[in-house]
Amino acid sequence: MDAEISLRVDGQAHRLTVDTRTTLLDAMRERLGVTSPKKGCDHGQCGACTVLLDGERQLPCLALAVAHDGAEITTADGLAPPGELHPVQQAFLDQDAFQCGYCTPGQVCSAVAVLDEVARGWPSHASTDLTADPELDHDEVSERMSGNLCRCAAYVNIVPAVQQAGGRS
To answer: Could you read off the pLDDT of 64-98 as tens digits, one per residue?
Structure first.
């Protein structure tokens, strides 16, 4: 069975007809040509496909496209105006926080969400005081980024990149 949906991806509106079993990731990559979110495990375990869905980080490999009709999706490609870099993207470059780059778009989107969560005062499992504003220390960033795996093990530079983007170098 097919359904017509609309999505706004990186600021651009799209209407498309999809099979009701199509994941949001497949709709973006195969139907819209949006290849920034990577298909890694296709099981929600690696985080390579992480995007911001209506402002929150999500794994589109686990979401059906029809369930997100009208959604606003931001990928790593849509974080900054053309020709410019988002502060997280700049920090990843400054800190050399990638090697092969396959996981980088998902890492970047996740890092943007991490900084938003910290700004909102949301605690994580690593937060020692649940009533205090979270700190961007190593353990806090590592915990919040733990859903994004890097086969190259660039974590030693990813954590400082998130800290730099958050204003803590």
So the answer is: 999 999 999 999 999 999 999 999 999 999 999 99
Q: Give the burial string for 81-104 (b: 16+ CB within 10 Å, else e).
A: eeeeebbbbebbeebebbeeebbb
Q: Where in the chain is the domain with CATH 1.10.150.120?
A: 87-165
Domain at 2-78: CATH code: 3.10.20.30
**In angstroms, rounded to a whole number, what is the distance separating the alpha carbons of residues 126 and 146?**
11
What is the C-alpha to C-alpha distance for residues 97 and 109, in angstroms, rounded to an integer? 14
Residues of the chain with CATH 3.10.20.30: 2-78
The pLDDT tens digits of the residues spanning 38-62 come to: 999 999 999 999 999 999 999 999 9
Q: What is the pTM of this model?
A: 0.95
